[in-house]
From TrEMBL:
Gene designation per UniProt: mmuM
Cofactor(s) this protein requires: Zn(2+)
Example of a GO biological process term: methylation
Keyword Methyltransferase: yes
UniProt keywords, alphabetically: Metal-binding, Methyltransferase, Transferase, Zinc
InterPro entries referenced in this protein's UniProt entry, alphabetically: BHMT-like (IPR017226), HCY_dom (IPR003726), HCY_dom_sf (IPR036589), Hcy_S-methyltransferase (IPR051486)
Protein name: Homocysteine S-methyltransferase
Domain Hcy-binding: 1-293
Length: 299
């Protein structure tokens, strides 16, 4: 069954933060290539992370390609042919993990924003000073390479800026590959400050888009975003951060990393059909979420 068809009948559970799962397994992700580095140095660790999320109840695995770009990897001395191989491998590893569990599973190829390549937090600001045409040129090679790997869907995620969303949708238009478009937001606006109504409107008329929504945001910002996204008539995708906060004085995270799951019923009640977690949500958190949504996952 295609993912788009499943969304017509029920809620589908996404995985959580790949980086969180890898860090919980003891891996150092301080490199500028972040979790993408492990596609090169320890691909089994990436597969194991996907498998942990699937076993916890996730039905969709988002690949470790978020930080993988030809430009970013070139800065680390990794050539274009090897980068293309790693992009293909990101999909193959998630697919391999899916084959080790029972039931329907899907693979979403992560397409992170331009700012992720800069590795300086720009994905939470947007407004890079690039034109839409320049952003199209940046995104096209990676997206075309991921499409070759035949994922079930492209996860265009953590997009801070309407201009960048327009650029990515220009690349995917006509490809025939399903896409979800997910913004990073602050309050009721994109991270670049645009109204969410404007942000979601760019998906109109792009046949490949099967869902719009938000990710990598506080859980309390999700409900409003769902109500706005639902007005598009498309299914809504949401995968916020855990809701924990960093205590700089104690140098520790505070709060319950599974608490966001208690809000999921409100989100699905207003149109969310793809629900998961982002930063600080490991397999245990997704297990809690899957349990909370169990009744809504029946076809």
């Amino acid at each position: 069954m295609e993912l788009k068809d499943a969304l017509a009948d029920r809620v589908v559970v996404l995985d959580g933060g790949m980086s969180t799962a890898l860090e919980l397994a003891g891996h150092d992700l301080s490199d500028a290539l972040w979790s993408g580095r492990l596609l090169l140095t320890d691909p089994d660790a990436v597969r194991d992370a996907h498998l942990a999320f699937y076993r916890a109840g996730a039905e969709v695995a988002i690949t470790a390609s978020y930080q993988v770009t030809f430009e970013g990897f070139a800065k680390q001395g990794i050539g274009s042919a090897e980068t293309a191989r790693l992009l293909h491998a990101s999909v193959a590893l998630a697919r391999s993990a899916a084959s080790s569990v029972d039931g329907q599973r899907w693979v979403a190829a992560s397409v992170g924003p331009y700012g992720a390549m800069l590795a300086d937090g720009s994905e939470y600001r947007g407004r890079y000073g690039l034109s839409v045409a320049e952003l199209v040129d940046f995104h096209r090679p990676r997206i075309e390479t991921l499409v070759e790997a035949a994922p079930d869907v492209l996860a265009v995620e953590t997009i801070p800026d309407v201009d960048e969303a327009a650029a990515v949708l220009e690349v995917v238009r006509g490809s025939g590959v399903p896409v979800w478009l997910s913004y990073s937001i602050r309050g009721d606006r994109t991270c670049a400050g645009q109204p969410l109504e404007e942000a979601f409107a760019v998906a109109a008329g792009v046949d490949e888009v099967i869902a719009v929504g938000v990710n990598c945001c506080p859980p309390e910002d999700v409900a409003h975003a769902v109500s706005v996204a639902s007005a598009t008539g498309l299914p809504v995708v949401v995968y916020p951060n855990s809701g924990e906060e960093w205590d700089a004085a104690e140098r520790a995270w505070t709060g319950d990393g599974t608490g966001f799951a208690g809000l999921a019923g409100e989100w699905t009640g207003h149109g969310a059909r793809l629900v998961g977690g982002c930063c600080r949500t490991g397999p245990d958190a997704i297990g809690v979420l899957a349990g909370a949504l169990a009744g809504e996952r029946k076809a």
